[in-house]
Amino acid sequence: METKIWAVNEIEQAAKAIKRGSLVAFPTETVYGLGADAFNEQAVGKVYAAKGRPSDNPLIVHVADAEQVEKYAMVDARAKKVMDAFWPGPLTIILPVVRGAISHTVTGGLETVASRMPDNDVTRTLIRMADTPIVGPSANTSGKPSPTTAQHVYHDLHGKIAGILDDGATTIGVESTVIDLSVAQPAVLRPGKITPEQLEAVLGEPVDSEVHQVAASEAPKAPGMKYRHYAPDKDVYMVAREDWTQAIIWAQGQLAPVGLMLPNDLIVEHQLAGMNFVWSLGNDDAEAAAKLFAGLRYFDDRDDIATILVAELAHTSANAAYNNRLGKSSSGQKFNVTDFM
Ligand code: TXA
Ligand code: MG
Predict the structure, then answer these.
(1) What Å distances lie between residue 128 and 46, 185, 211, CA to CA?
(2) Which of 5, 68, 245, 288 has the most C-beta neighbours closer than 10 Å?
(3) CA 262 to CA 292: how far, in whole Å?
(4) Which ligand is nearest to the CA of 30?
(5) First-to-last CA distance in the chain?
(6) What is the DSSP string of 125-190?
(7) CA 326–ligand 2 middle distance (angstroms)
(8) What's the pLDDT tens digit per position in 118-130?
């Protein structure tokens, strides 16, 4: 199958493809998603096949308005509060399913379902035109960094999906915060741009924010968190801010070039501007999040690079999403002076 790239004035073609049960990648403010009609079980099945995704890892249902959620999930006052405060936006809400209202292929057989209203006009128009909510995991091959451009999606999925709606690079660059509101105490299952503190302020009650790292054998709360993730086929190491001087000395002593992903102030300080083994993470932490996955993909596609060193950010709640994704990409490996020098 030839994969089309549609411009934002070609939403109607994308909507038609969704309606006939085909797969369409769509833009959001976080990462590109891989869309299918949430009420067409066969179409949803194709999503798992195209990504190579394990079938016990449930999908997020994307909606264009909050009322759509009530067709398949139990929306209580608490859920309405966070929807009002954060939708459209980078927040995915887990709620109990309305029994029989949505297929097990979407929920991975759980009694709960994830929903999100993306902050992207093109995609909300697509959902309205297709006249159905659409499921949307990140539009990458399972295990690879999530796509932040249409070209990333094309790289992973061309020939496997009908088309891609191209709305340029996403702005946030890491996936949405996932909050579980199906339980007594709200819990963040995946960190994202919206922090536990912001959620607590709206909910007026404590939010559990420990992201539990689960072993592959356990039944995790967010099934997606147990798999190796966001990982290029390279050796990735996190570098703490105070270790960059040593890390650069180590990198420059290697025979093959080592990919370096670091913020502009460190690039300037170490006189690395313009070097072809350097990927800039920009001028602040938000930019770093927006550029993380693209950098990992850039080095993943370079045959001359076997190792990538990536800046860890200060451990604040706003940086939790970035550090969490980097932790997974690197399988937790850290550059440290004693082992490397
Ligand atoms: O920003 C995002 O959320 C992007 C864009 C495309 O919207 N989507 C995304 O989807 O990241 P995906 O499938 O890559 O990640 C969904 C996460 C997985 O960790 C999955 O296990 C979890 O949400 N999840 C989905 N349904 C769930 C449920 N019922 N209970 C617990 N976790 C759930
Ligand atoms: Mg994903």
Answers:
(1) 22, 33, 34
(2) 288
(3) 10
(4) 1
(5) 50
(6) HHHHHHTS-EE--BSS-TTSPPPSSHHHHHHHHTTTSSEEE---S-SS-SPPEEEE-SSSS-EEEE
(7) 14
(8) 999 999 999 999 9
Is 328 near ligand 1, meaning CB less than 6 Å away?
no
pLDDT tens profile 183-211 = 999 999 999 999 999 999 999 999 999 76
Q: Are 334 and 238 in contact (CB under 8 A)?
A: yes
pLDDT at 222: 67
Question: CA dist 174 to 102, 165, 322, Å?
Answer: 27, 19, 7
Pick the atom of ligand 1 nearest to 112's CA. 29
Instruction: Supply the pTM of this predicted model.
Output: 0.95
Query: Which residues have a Cβ under 8 Å from the Cβ of 112 and sit 6 or more positions away?
Result: 94, 95, 96, 97, 180, 182
Which protein residue has the closest C-alpha to ligand 1 atom 31?
Answer: 222
- pLDDT for res 214: 44
Test site for ligand 1: of 102, 172, 175, most ligand atoms within 8 A of the Cβ: 175
Pocket test for ligand 1, best of 26, 60, 94, 226 (most atoms within 8 A of CB): 60
Query: Would you tell me how many other CB atoms lie within 10 Å of the CB of residue 240?
Result: 15
Low-confidence ranges of the chain (pLDDT < 50): 213-218
Domains of the chain in start order, with CATH, are: 4-203 (3.90.870.10), 235-340 (3.40.50.11030)
Q: How many helices (H) and strands (E) does the chain have?
A: 12, 14
